[in-house]
Structure formats: C-alpha cells, structure tokens
Amino acid sequence: MRMYDIIHKKREGHELSHEETAWLVKAVTDGTVPDYQISALLMAIFFRGMTPAETVDLTWEMARSGDMADLSPIPGVKVDKHSTGGVGDKTTLIVGPIAAACGVKTAKMSGRGLGHTGGTVDKLESIPGLHMDIPRERFYEIVKQTGIALVGQSGSLCPADKKLYALRDVTNTVDSLPLIAASIMSKKLAAGADAILLDVKLGSGAFMKTLPEAVKLAELMVDTGNRAGRRTAALITDMDMPLGRCIGNALEVREAVEILRGSGDARLTELSLELAAGMIVLAELAPDRESALSKAQEAIDSGRAFNVFCGMVSAQGGDASCLEDTSKLPLSPCEHIVRAQESGYISALDAETCGLAAMELGAGRESKDDQIDYGAGIVLLANKGSKVEAGEPIARLYAREEAQCERAEKRFLTALSIEKERPVSQPLIIERIGI
Ligand code: URA
Asked: How many CA atoms lie within 13 A of 107 on its CB side?
C-alpha cells in the first residue's frame, strides 16, 4: 500500500477500507510515513469527513496501536466516564465514588490539565501523598476493594492518537468530528471498560460551542462506542458558566468533598447525580434513570459515597484526613477579593475566561512542563443569574503573589456582564443520548 494512494482516495471523498485504515495507523505508529503526508491526509479527512464504519475502524486501530487494558480480573461491570472538558469540572471525583457506592466498578485513567480546563490527575495530586502512577496489579486490587481507582494515563496508551493529535494541533484540523470522536473513543476502548458514559460540554468554556455541533459529536461517539461493542450513552450539559463554585485543584477537591457530604452547589450536585445515575443504568444495576437517581442520592445521604472516596484516596497513598478536615489541603497564601462594579444580575460569567484567570493565578499550565500551584484558584461567591450589589464580594482569588491576583482580577472582570434584567436560565442537562 502507498500513502499517496490513500491520500488520493480520501481527497476524492471515497471510503477507506478496513485494510487501508489498519495499514495507515500502523505506519503512523511506526513512523514509516512522513508528517507531511499524514498532515495532507488529515486535511482531506477534515474536508471529506469519514463514514461511521471508517470512524470505528480508525478508533479500533488507534486503540490497538498501544497497550489495551484487560479489566476482566475485576468482577462486575466496569463503567468509564468521560467529560469533553470544562471549567470547574470536578465531577469525576464525585461521580466515581457515588457510582462505586452503588456497585459500579470504575478503573479510570485520567489526564492532566492543559490550557483553561483542569485535569483530574492534577486535582487528585493536590491531596498530600496521593499517587496516580500505580502499577497495574495494585490498580486492579484497589478497584476490587473500593470499587474505584483513578490513575494517570499510561505513556503507551494510543500512541497513534498522540502522533495524530500533535499534527492536528499544528495543521488546524483538530475540530473534525470523526477525528475528535476517534481520538476520544480510542482511549476509552484501550482503557478497557464495558460501558462508557460521555459528558459532552456545550458553551463558552467547552470545545463545542453550538448545540447542533455538540449533538453531532455526542451521537457519533455513542454510535462509535456501540459499534465497537461497548454500551455507550451521552449527556450534553451546559458549560456556559463555570461548574460549581471552585476553580483550581485543591479548591475543587474541597468542593467535591462538600458535595459528597450532601451540601454545596445545587447545579454541581444535580449534574453529579445525573452522571452517577447514567453509570448505574449502563452497569445494569438499576432498571431506569429514576431508580438510579434515588440510589445515587442514597449513596450520598448514607455517607457511603464519601467513605468510598476516602478509601480510594488512602489506598492510593493519600492522606484521607485532609478530606475529613479540608482546611489541611493546600491553599495559596494571597487572598484577594473581587467586588461587583455595579448592581444588577450577573447575565454572563464566561467559563473559558474564568479558566484563563485561574491559570494566571497558577492553577493551570500553558505548556505541558509548567508547574502547578495546587492551592491556587478561584472561589465564586456569585455565578450567572445571581443578583449582586455594587461593591459586594463576588469571588475570592488565591495565588502565591498579589501581582498574580491583580492580573487575574482584570481578566476575571472581562468574563463578567451585569445587567438590570434577570437572565433566562439555561437548563443544565440539555440533551440525553442513549439513556
Ligand atoms: N480530546 C481528545 O482526547 N481528542 C480530541 O480530538 C479532542 C479532545
């Protein structure tokens, strides 16, 4: 086979055969085709698209390009959850323990944060002592004991995706729906779960900015997962404003603990219960969403979900006393209050800009080798829809230095619009696909 012919076929809008896709992914992984030819093919895919069958082929081949986790030694139905990324999205820390307390098994590999969205690995590593690089046998042991373990992604997961993603990034071909679907779903297939719940974010802080785009992506990923033999469903959820009250690693752990203890932000609680219920239904541990929702609520009310989280943190070497007393978690020394500049209703609080302000405080990284300040971030005292008076505190910023807070405050204020009229509230769960 020749790369030249594959590029030609795709450029003319024809479907690549299974053999061609397999050859191509192997050549990408082995480095036997040059970057300029791969880039040309990516651009052809960007314009011509891929059929559902081609998308599944690409997904499977990328999954098989590296290690494939075999979760069969863990009894029970293993369910993975994936969020397309948002600001203040700490739901994995909440949903995993709730679902585990209801009998779901979660052996999840998570990523680090880059840019304005945070990563689960960084959030958990803000707990003193906690390790994310756990050997496979121990990883499985923890899932068997506690129902859940969250580890970092292994370096050998989907090397073809790493190569293709790096080239998409520099050739402006990231936002091709089949390439996004294959990239996300290949990592989910390689991670080995029996079922997958996707949280596709929609709005200013999300990858997908419009509902039709988000629906298309969600449907494509659900179809790809199901064709690949994994029960898959998706929720499309609002990311037009930050999720919950905290943005920043240790601050988000504090907030996750609050929710697991039955108090805290209502929207974050609602989303966490919905996602946990989705996982419970996918694991066939409840016949429908309503009964799964009551199981999830009971796991919080009884304290079992919080205990699961503490058990997982201890098993991964973390100091669980920091969860009993969250004042022991890191908190950066400079506290800076942001005040409303006028009275009215907050009509917008742009999630992406809030994420960028949190990065200025030290909570995120611009490039992958940047160091994170685990105690930095934003505590929102008001969010979209809140009524505020001029001079009223609307956020607390935390950083190592006052100068960082001042820069972040300027940016944060650009995220904010205050108007006289109460804004129309956007539903949190916008659409359900396959659930
Ligand atoms: N996340 C991924 O892992 N891949 C994409 O292509 C987009 C988002």
From this structure: 29
Residue 91 Cα to ligand 1 midpoint, Å, equals 18
Q: Which atom of ligand 1 is closest in space to residue 179's alpha carbon? A: 6
Q: What is the pLDDT of residues 388-414, one digit of tens each?
A: 999 999 999 999 999 999 999 999 999
By annotation, the residues acting in catalysis are 82, 161, 168, 183, 187
Whether the predicted pLDDT of 155 surpasses 80: no
Q: In angstroms, rounded to a whole number, what is the distance separating the alpha carbons of residues 3 and 24?
A: 7
For the chain, what is the mean pLDDT? 95
Give the closest residue (by CA) to ligand 1 atom 8. 180
User: What number does the ligand 1 atom closest to the CA of 182 have?
Assistant: 6
Q: In 3-state terms, the chain is what percent helix, strand and coil (to 5)?
A: 50, 15, 35
Instruction: Give 3-49's CATH code, choosing from 1.10.3130.10, 3.40.50.720, 1.20.970.10, 3.30.70.3040.
Output: 1.20.970.10
| Nearest alpha carbon, ligand 1 atom 2 | 184
What spacing in Å lies between the alpha carbon of 380 and ligand 1's midpoint? 28
Q: How many residues does the chain have?
A: 435
Residues 259, 243: contact at Cβ < 8 Å? no
Atom of ligand 1 nearest to the CA of 165: 6
Q: Give me the CATH topology for the region 79-325.
A: Pyrimidine Nucleoside Phosphorylase; Chain A, domain 2 (3.40.1030)
Residue 115 has pLDDT above 80, yes or no: no
* DSSP string for 23-57: HHHHHHHHT-S-HHHHHHHHHHHHHH---HHHHHH
Would you say residue 113 has pLDDT above 80? no
Ligand 1 first shell, C-beta below 6 A: 165, 174, 180, 183-184
User: To test ligand 1's pocket by mutation, which of 165, 176, 188 has the most ligand atoms within 8 angstroms of CB?
Assistant: 165
User: What confidence tier does 425 reach under pLDDT thresholds 50, 70, 90?
Assistant: confident
